[in-house]
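Feature request, filed as a ticket because there's no other form

It would be nice if the structure record came with a short human-readable summary line next to the tokens. Right now we just get the raw output. Example of a typical job, pasted below so the devs can see what we mean:
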Amino acid sequence: MNNEIDEFSLTYIQKPGIAPEAPGRYVSQESRTISRPQFHLSPNYPNPFRHFTQMPLHLGAPGRVSATIYNLQGQQIQSLYNGILFTGTHQLKWFGTTAAGQAASNGIYFLRVLVEADNGTIEVLSRELLLAR
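Raw output as currently delivered:
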């Protein structure tokens, strides 16, 4: 963004046939495009859950995905997925078990999804999960 200020005028329609001009100042020629996020992690359902919960993950571009469950202490409990996923919606499921296959304790857990797109974009998405058997 430069610091130059250019003059401009703004025309707006107040009533049919009347178009007054309003003087103004133009600050920048920079334009921005607002786009939809490439990656989206929907809320898990059911939540709280007893047997399993699922989280829809939408990828607007293919990329490497790592989905991991952590407890409140930040300890890794279970890796749900680690690999390449293509564009589209994918279902991540957690059955409330640890990496050793044992039932996880009741409580709050966090799902962290790291997505690295082919273009180098990296996004970290997360959700809070409540296990209540």
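Something like this underneath would help us a lot:
Confidence is low (pLDDT under 50) at residues 8-29, 31-36.
The longest strand covers residues 107-117.
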